[in-house]
């Protein structure tokens, strides 16, 4: 084959490699085959290609290189054009959504202006002597309307034997739902941080001054309307607090729709209140404009209809007209409107817990936004945009997440019909309760646990659980700390006992001991949702045996872990860390026995001077209404509470039940104490009058403080704590511990990444950690790129002169929060024999960004 060129041939060089070359179809086909296998071949590969393909023998290697460059550029342009088309479709749909929202707001403004004018008119024309018969006229006109309309809904017997009566209830629910979804029936206020955009979740709003609590979300998904409806109807697949949904009756409606009578049971989020259930009518139908709508409302004595199933373990809540409206979108996909409006009977729970049942923000995150996120997740998985590791299908990974949440909820609630019963009375001031389940086959339902769940401890399952209140500790920060610093609260022996249920050989019941975590944890990512609000991961606990009796701890263990709600910017979000032991095979049908933590925000309000601002509260005292002394008041007036629910499950045999119960109580009690210490360490401290954590008093700490102070004086010629250089060791330690600047010590090793080894209280506050977890934090992960470059450039000066000053910069805490500082001083810490011990850092005037 000949190559057609657009230039003259040179007698000396043949083809001029700098000119454009026109390739024949056969040559393009050969190059395309290579491009499919390797889009960017090396020089050797291109030369090999010319040798192996005779049709390319008269083309210079440089021209081959240029062809691959142009081919990659065309591929990039094609992908970018497709991406821009997708973004354009999303923006057009979002623009339509915003225009509708703007119309709704204009109608709401007009309605408010009319009401305002009407009220002003009444105030000016009101007269005490005027007889007002308007109420009577309304009653008379209403009676006349009923006489003229014999088919009025109130004339229909609304029971299960009269479909026409149920249809009238359904039509009323549909009209009221549509007025909430697209009209002005509810005064909607957009949630903070929820802004529309091509990649956002959509428009999320909550109710203001409405009966009950309500939330609404509008968004765009790349699925057809009927597929979206199918996903949203399966409430258990996306609503983690849903225990069961039973459809007791299905009645075809005369207009082509469907009426369903549904009984739904919900889990209680904490151990402090009863679970809720709903008895509802669900109506599905198509509208004249092609939209598909599913609305639902409770059947009560007011609305009429058949009575729902009784249940003594649940509190009957009311669902006001709610549902979802799905409209087809031009170019494919759907626009989804979701409305949730409920009354959870907040007065039946303790007063301290009522904000959890009165918050539209929490309802929005747990139900409304969760539904929309789930649909978007399915849409992106269907389109292949989501890639998961480990060779697992997305549906399998979602099943693991659901099993973890469901198992944890079962443990927290302890329903009698699942086989749970209390073991003895509550023990201790922390109100730790213990329940047992002697029906492993019934436990958790057949879809979650098989008959081989308890290979060696076949008698049952024991759960120890507790709740506590925290103040001024963000749930996301606490859960991130518990996830990243397991050694701060966990006991490796207890973990080993929990993992023993997966092995055939028995394992002795351990005694929970403080600081009993002689292992390292390695977090292996498995999957995450599109918006990164939930992580599924495998945690490997590397075991070490330090004595013959600890040989059972020497093997590695594995946990399947689900972490959610770690974004501090989410308003009303619940943070959760749930995990369960697994074996190395990790089969798709692996049995799971989950344990973990759930942290739910209760409120965020300004408190008057003298109000309690304690970071941790005893739950019993809070329920009794007791308060702390005014001396502990928060000077900045900001107070927000969270409730922490802790539940740990263990298998047991008949002869080990009492020992396991004692171990579980002691372990949960130690975890409560650990969380209290962690809360003191990570809660915002500037401006607070809370007494700091006591300084360490070991001989090693006293020696290190003496070396730090002496080295600073030797290198800089100034004293770190003042002019008195003859201060005793205890006084030096107290001065260093309470120093206003963050002082940290970092290891000085040439064969390993430097890690922090010591910090004063301010340094722990800056890094948002504790002394135990401090040793897991590396220096290069704390400093940003400019800080690392500044330290590297000044390092020779530090080693020669003994100290150096670093300019202002930004670093990161262990929780990922950015910290700015005005200056950092670095100096060598010398031992008594003048050998190098470590580097000391002092960050001046730091603050969270």
Automatic annotation (TrEMBL):
DNA-binding region(s) from the entry: 16-79
One Pfam family linked to the record: START
Domain (START) ranges: 159-387
Subcellular location: Nucleus
SMART domains per the UniProt record, alphabetical: HOX, START
Biased composition annotated in UniProt, kind: Low complexity: 143-154
Keyword line: Coiled coil, Differentiation, DNA-binding, Homeobox, Nucleus, Transcription, Transcription regulation
GO molecular function: DNA binding; DNA-binding transcription factor activity; lipid binding
Protein name: Homeobox domain-containing protein
């Amino acid at each position: 084959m000949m190559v057609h060129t657009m230039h003259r041939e040179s007698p000396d060089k043949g083809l001029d490699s700098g000119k454009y070359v026109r390739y024949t179809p056969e040559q393009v086909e050969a190059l395309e085959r290579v491009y499919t296998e390797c889009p960017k071949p090396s020089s050797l590969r291109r030369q090999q290609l010319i040798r192996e393909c005779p049709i390319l023998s008269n083309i210079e290697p440089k021209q081959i290189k240029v062809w691959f460059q142009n081919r990659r550029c065309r591929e990039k342009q094609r992908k970018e054009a497709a991406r821009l088309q997708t973004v354009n479709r999303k923006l057009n749909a979002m623009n339509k959504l915003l225009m509708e929202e703007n119309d709704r707001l204009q109608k709401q403004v007009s309605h408010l202006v009319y009401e305002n004018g009407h009220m002003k008119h009444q105030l000016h024309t009101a007269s005490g002597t005027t007889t007002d018969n308007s109420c009577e006229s309304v009653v008379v006109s209403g009676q006349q309307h009923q006489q003229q309309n014999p088919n009025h809904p109130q004339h229909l017997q609304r029971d299960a034997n009269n479909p026409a009566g149920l249809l009238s209830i359904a039509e009323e629910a549909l009209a009221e739902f549509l007025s909430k979804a697209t009209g002005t029936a509810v005064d909607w206020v957009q949630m903070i941080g929820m802004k529309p955009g091509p990649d956002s979740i959509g428009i999320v709003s909550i109710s203001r001054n409405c009966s009950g609590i309500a939330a609404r979300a509008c968004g765009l998904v790349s699925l057809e309307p009927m597929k979206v409806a199918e996903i949203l109807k399966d409430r258990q697949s996306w609503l983690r607090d849903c225990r069961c949904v039973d459809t007791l009756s299905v009645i075809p409606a005369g207009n082509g729709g469907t009426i369903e009578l549904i009984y739904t049971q919900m889990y209680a989020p904490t151990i402090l209140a009863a679970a809720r259930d709903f008895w509802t009518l669900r109506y599905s139908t198509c509208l004249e404009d092609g939209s598909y709508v599913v609305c639902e409302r409770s059947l009560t004595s007011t609305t009429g209809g058949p009575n729902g199933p009784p249940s003594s373990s649940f509190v009957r809540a009311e669902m006001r007209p709610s549902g979802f409206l799905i409209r087809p979108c031009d170019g494919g996909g759907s626009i989804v409107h979701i409305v949730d409006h409920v009354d959870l009977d907040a007065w039946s729970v303790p007063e301290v817990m009522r904000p959890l049942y009165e918050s539209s923000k929490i309802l929005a995150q747990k139900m409304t936004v969760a539904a929309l996120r789930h649909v978007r997740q399915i849409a992106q998985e269907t389109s292949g945009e989501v890639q998961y590791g480990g060779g697992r299908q997305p549906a399998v990974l979602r099943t693991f997440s659901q099993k973890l949440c469901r198992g944890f909820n079962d443990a927290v609630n302890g329903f009698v019909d699942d086989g749970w019963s209390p073991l003895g009375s509550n023990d201790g001031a922390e109100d730790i309760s213990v329940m047992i389940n002697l029906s492993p086959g019934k436990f958790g339902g057949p879809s979650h646990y098989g008959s081989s769940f308890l290979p060696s401890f076949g008698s049952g399952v024991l759960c120890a659980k507790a709740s506590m209140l925290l103040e001024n500790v963000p749930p996301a920060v606490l859960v991130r700390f518990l996830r990243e610093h397991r050694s701060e609260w966990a006991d490796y022996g207890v973990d080993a006992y929990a993992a023993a249920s997966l092995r055939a050989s028995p394992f002795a019941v351990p005694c929970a001991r403080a600081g009993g975590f002689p292992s390292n944890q390695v977090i292996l990512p498995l999957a995450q949702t599109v918006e990164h609000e939930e992580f599924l991961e495998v945690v490997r606990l590397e075991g070490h045996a330090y004595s013959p009796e600890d040989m059972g701890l020497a093997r590695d263990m594995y946990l399947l872990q689900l972490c959610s709600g770690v974004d501090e910017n989410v308003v009303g979000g619940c943070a959760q860390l749930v995990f369960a032991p697994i074996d190395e095979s990790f089969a798709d049908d692996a049995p799971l026995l989950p344990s973990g933590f759930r942290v739910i925000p209760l409120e965020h309000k300004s408190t008057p001077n003298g109000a309690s601002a304690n970071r941790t509260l005893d739950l019993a005292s809070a329920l009794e209404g007791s308060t702390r002394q005014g001396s502990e008041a928060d000077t900045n007036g900001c107070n927000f509470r969270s409730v922490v629910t802790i539940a740990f499950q263990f298998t047991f045999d008949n002869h080990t039940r009492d020992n396991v119960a004692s171990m579980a109580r002691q372990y949960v009690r130690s975890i409560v104490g650990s969380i209290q210490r962690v809360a003191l360490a990570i809660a915002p401290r500037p401006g607070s009058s809370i007494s700091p954590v006591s300084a360490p008093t070991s001989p090693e700490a006293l020696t290190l403080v003496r070396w730090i102070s002496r080295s600073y004086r030797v290198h800089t010629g100034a004293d770190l704590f003042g002019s008195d250089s003859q201060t005793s060791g205890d006084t030096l330690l107290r001065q260093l511990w309470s120093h206003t600047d963050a002082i940290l010590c970092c290891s000085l090793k040439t064969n390993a990444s430097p890690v922090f080894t010591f910090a004063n209280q301010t340094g722990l506050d800056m890094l948002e950690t504790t002394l135990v977890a401090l040793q897991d934090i590396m220096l290069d992960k704390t400093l940003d790129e400019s800080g690392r470059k500044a330290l590297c450039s000044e390092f020779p000066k530090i080693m020669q002169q003994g100290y150096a000053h670093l300019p202002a910069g930004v670093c990161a805490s262990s929780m990922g929060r950015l910290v700015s500082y005005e200056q950092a001083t670095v100096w060598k810490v010398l031992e008594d024999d003048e050998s190098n011990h470590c580097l000391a850092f002092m960050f001046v005037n730091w603050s969270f960004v």
